[in-house]
Records
---
Amino acid sequence: MNAGYSVSLQKVIDAHELEVVYLPKSANEILITSSEINRPGIALSGYTDYFDPRRIQILGWTELCFLENMDCKGQKEALGKWLSLSPAAVVVTRGLEVPDYFVSSCEEYKIPLLKTNDVTSSFLATLIQYLNTSLAPRITRHGVLCEVYGEGVLIIGESGAGKSETAVELIKRGHRLIADDAVEIRRTDAHTLIGASPNNIRHFIELRGIGIINARRLFGMGAVKASEKINMVIQLEPWDATKAYDRLGLDNEYTMILDVKVPVITVPVNPGRNLAVIIETAAMNNRQKKMGYNAARELIVGLGMEDIEPGEKELEIWKNS
């Protein structure tokens, strides 16, 4: 899943405030390439057939007590067979004292050794979440990402469609900007997309006729956010009088991003349309649909048209409007 991506061990250390016990070289030069982690109890007992050396190894009270119950020869053999496989790094949890023989073995096999005061289970959870995000598959899409009423809305469309201008209007209405122009999208699990801005253009917006502005400095810290889950996509396109646009919204349309299905709405752009208000309404309506309420379906049932074919419902309502 994470092939081709890596994160330096130094970033892992900084993110989790880990204590360095031993490093064979600079932590910036040590790359972590797997989001999977391992508790090496089975490996310490001698079974290493399916051992993955790319994983960070986590040792808690159980593993250290297992080693303490061995004699010196058994400890050396168990650690030697395990560490000779060159695991990416070893972290001892709960602030436990690392025995001298353990440190010596890590130095012999040049394995990074770290400590944390966190209990094992909570550290496992935070580390897995961090690695899933840092090593997630990713793409960059041209568009704007805003948080609107808690919904992550990705606004896409051709250049000049009004994406950045709409983002400024949304900011003025109390919503938050995540990214303008380039949106870096990561798939953190099979159903979740997280959007963020590349570091070098974070908080900047390009407005034709004005130039580049810094949304954080202009509107304040409350106007921006580092990242947000992508809940829906708004496709802006020039109004086409010959095209039949959805007037009911009875069924969701979807687009695929990194193999994740995301609801998409096409909004025609026409002079006089308040795109910010439309996007606010779309975000709230999308949240209602996720909670099981569909206004169009309620209308259809109220009109007694639930037995009419989907394509005929809009035509019938249009005739009566």
---
Amino acid sequence: MVVLIEKNYPVFTVVIDNPESKNAVDGPTAQKLSSAFREFENDNQALVAVLWGANGAFCSGANLKAISEGRGNKVEKKGDGPMGPTRLRLSKPVIAAIAGHAVAGGLELALWCDMRVVEKNAIFGVFCRRFGVPLVDGGTVRLPRLIGLSRAMDMILTGRPIGAEEALAWGLANRLVDNGQSRIEAEKLAREIAVFPQICMRNDRKSAYEQFGLNIEEAMAKEFKFGLKTLESGEFLKGSKAFINGKGKHGDFTN
């Protein structure tokens, strides 16, 4: 199996394991990735997902060799993206755990995730620039929104490799960890996120995504709509009682 699922609730880890091609994704692998994240979305016990590439590499993009062998990635207007889940809009967060190369379509998979925990040896880049293969899994959309147009153009036009330190400085990486620790640290972060009241966290997350393209008045109105849904759920009442009883005071997240 090239795509593995490991469940350690509330964490749901999806593993790409294709060492022969640095976890490149062909058509069947893309379908398995989409199926894995749909399973995550529909699993009520799974609150946060982690996407990790085994064998020291996150993902080197689409498998160009597979294209010549009839196992190429599906390229259609509707349905899943060529790399699989990149068009899915999940209600729950996904964290990328990145070692080695996250390039071309692999970069686009990383951008699709909400956060990126990155090892010091990680390399990002639009390496497909060399071969005339376009970014069609959200790269030209998510990258500028994430790191700004100027830096995105640096990556998109030159295709040059971006190391972990530069990625952290640019906001492409959220956490920088020692080599061999990305999955461990990403799953630790996932468990920390899973502890929070989920209705509030998910509504705030959705509001942050859906404000793109709206003017300030529209964005504020949408934020209020999501916030009102959270308040109507009553979830905050439990949190308020916990605070009164001493939890979370003075910015403490440990209890």
---
Amino acid sequence: MKRKWLAIALSMALAVGMLSGCGEDKKETASQAPSNTETEEPAPETEEPEESVDLLEDGGGKVLNIYAWNDEFQQRFEAYYPDYKDGKVGDVEIKFIINPNEGSNYQDKLDEALGKQESAAADEKVDLFMAEADYIAKYSSAAADVAVDVKALGLTDQDMSNMYDYTKQVATDENGVLKGVSWQACPAGMIYRRSMAKKYFGSDDPAAVQEQVSDWDKFVAACKTIKEKSKGKDFMMAGPNDMHRIYTNNDSTKFVEGDALTFTPGSEQWVDNTKKYCDEGYVMNPTMGLWSEDWTKQMGAKGHVFAFFGPAWFISFTMSDGSGAKKNDDGTYKHEDGKDSYGDWGLCLGPNPFNWGGTWIMAAKGTDNAALIKDIMLKMTCDQTILYNISKDKQDYVNGKEACEKLSADGITAPFLGDQDMIGTLKESAEKISMANLTIYDQACIESAEGDFADYFSGKSSKEDCIKKWQADVQAKFPNLTV
């Protein structure tokens, strides 16, 4: 019965719109007001008291079950949570249930487990689970009612005061209840090949490269320069989907309002501009998809692609491996001249900074480990020293403003980026991220588009036909939507 209820509740959540994207004009730096301190006394600062929340009682559980799609959080938990030792925290066994994220496999397995939560034996209940930005609204929704208010666990506004606002915004339900917290933030930029930058623009310095691509007109001019100087052998980007998230994340409207599915202005811009880039020869292969073998090869020493676009996790997980460098047992990489591209990369914000992804930690309703979960969330997402060490060791952009300031001040650099200050480069972007337009449909809308427009980019189909295909594919996943 509970499983049936969950399916109904999650379908109700389809009506909830909480969307992603940060338009250029959405969040600007506030102007500094003129100072009147000589003639007026400033009003005393007062702190509004937090609303009281009934704390969840701890059930004394002896097993903590953590659902995830990969071992990213597991690596960080086992290395940095101070009370973890030999598979346990005290007398509580820690169990990670990993279901890879291909298709909807992870969500399907998680939904099945959450649907059995009421009847499950104590040691088999879901306690913690991970959720990505593309679908977190599904699990934070009040209609779904599967995640615990973090304040009911005992976290306070003061505990979370160093977090970037958007990381709380995206995990807050329609009633203003925060359901998840994250140790990472995901501001993203343009990751460029330094050796090509020297060859085509005369410098590999991030400030100099940023000047070449600081707006869309300059970006197009840079594409043309690479094509002409390389005689068509090198390309600005590998495939048509490489810049997709820049457009959708900076979109001004939602994919879905009510039940109405819309091909958004940002999606239109992505399709129109990318078609021009493909036709002009700025894209290596109009049908090359993200994560494909050919796409990854272009990150290596023999690659012919100048730039990729992504956040810190993309650099440390995808590009570091794609560079061809040998990975050591401790997770670091060994560079060999001529054999890999590790260190031959730099980072700038590009024509339009954006955000991509992120992982949130959520407590499942029905958990019998409330006290331990509170401590895990507190230490792994609020402790600035732990966040500092995660970033220093793992190259994460962490969700702690104090930790990020200290990382830059201490000169902590990214070896993959030629020892560049990655945190300092992305800080400006991190402060401007908004996820106000996120909906539970975003993953389906974005991922469907990345396959459905390949024929248009390669000249085999019309834009209108591809939009119709996209609409049909999204509706197949969400039959409640209308066009």
---
Amino acid sequence: MADKKKKFSIRKLIYNDKYLIICSVIAAVIIWVSVALNLSPMTTKKITVPVDINFSGTLAEQLGIEYYGDNKISVEVTVSCKKYLAKDITADDISASLKTNSVTSTGYHSVPIYVSTKEDAEFTVESYYPTSAEGFYDVSQEVSIPIELNYKNKDFAAEGYVAGEATLNESNATVKGPSTYVSNVKRVVADIDLEKNLKESQAVTLDPIAVDDNGRRVEYVTISGKEQGFVATVPILKIQNLPPSISFTNAPQNVEDFVKIDYSVNSLKVGVLESADTTSLSLGSIDFSKVKKGKNEFVFDVSKISGIAVLDGTTEVVVTVTVPESFDTKTIDISRSDINLDAVDDYRVRILNLSSYHITLIGKKDELDKINKSNLSLTISPADGGKFTTDSSDCNLVISIKDAGTCWVYGQYTAKVRVTEK
């Protein structure tokens, strides 16, 4: 007959040494943890917490008042907690902010700092410092001021070279800050410090500052531009003596073969870019439609010529264009229907009136005699040099001569038009 199953017996477990040892260890651990959690000693911990500056929903926001000062305010918070929790408490568990709702006017204010914890925090805030923060509060203002360059050393070009006028990627700086301080800004200055014996142009990154009437730096303002930074290009120019030269528009071919051109100076001492390899100084161009028989004088301001520095004191050059008295004039009648409008593709143009219905030509008599209206090409172009629009009303009358020889059109002619969409 099979043995009967052994019955579970608490008595046997009690008198089992191994079981008693295991139970004792487990009970001891439970009791130790319970005592440690409930009877753990209290401790304190100091935590640095950044202070939030927020004007949302305040009277200051409605008045346009902003804070100007150190935006990285922090407080040292002392918390009290059980010792075993201390290592897990961080700045993320604490909030600190300025009570900006107490700011109701501009000026310097000492604003209280408010510190709080999460609702389920297992610690308390014992103290914190500082309890308030001083700062300047004002309405924001923004102005645009030209940048002035201040050369720390003047003699930086090599012998035989000279510095030209510097150009900036942005000539004006935007100064922004509290109105009280922005109103004190009178100039924006940027220092330039270059090495000596330079023969090549230099690009310099600028760090402009805002200063008052006495040249002292104005605090609490920022300087910015449209681009990523301010850069000045300082051209280094080679000193040369160059003869003046001129070009022509609306002139016959080989015009210099039959007119006389004189300059008020034979040469000018200038600084030019060495890489330009210049053999003459171009003063600009003369529109030959303004040239008549006899002497014609045109004055050029050399200070307006870009890329050079005039070194001999010359301010202007007079160019005299002399057309031989033997040249003759001729008048040709035109009408509105003579104007070719094919080039105006996108619009329908109607010629309303012409500034003149007579075109004056100048040239050698025998060549003028061969020219009639069939030799003329008449078109129009917008007076502003742009494109035709429905707002266009005044246009330039552009006249060219086929087989012109020595002949050209004298005078400026315009047309009044009405432009509509096709």
